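Researcher: I'm preparing a figure for a lab meeting and need a structural model of a single chain. I don't have an experimental structure, so a prediction will have to do for now. The sequence is pasted below. Please return the structure as tokens so I can convert it later.
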Amino acid sequence: MLLSHWIPWPAANVLTTVASTVAATELHARVSFGYGRPGLPGHLKSAVTMLVGWLVTSAAVGALAAFRPGAGLVLEQTVYLSATALVGIGRYLVLRLSVFAQRAPQKGMSDGVRSAAVCDVAA
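Model: Understood. Here is the structure written out token by token.
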């Protein structure tokens, strides 16, 4: 919202969305999902979720402007942050279930199959 005082709101939304998406993709891949560096394919897939998120947040703020012209900064921020929170949850689920679904091998795993020793101990 602060950037929108100097540049058009959609451009400010794009800048903040792109910056946060790049950072979030790196952090989710490395920390949240133990995937390692996401590389270009991971960032491109994540960019699709960013585009959807940008459309949702833009639609939310646009709908507020259409239905409630002259809404104050607090209401605008509430609508924007609520839409962003929903988009963030959706992005996390898509990244977890689709983009970074393959987890890094864990200890005791060999090509995705537990070793006989690990199974014997568990039994």
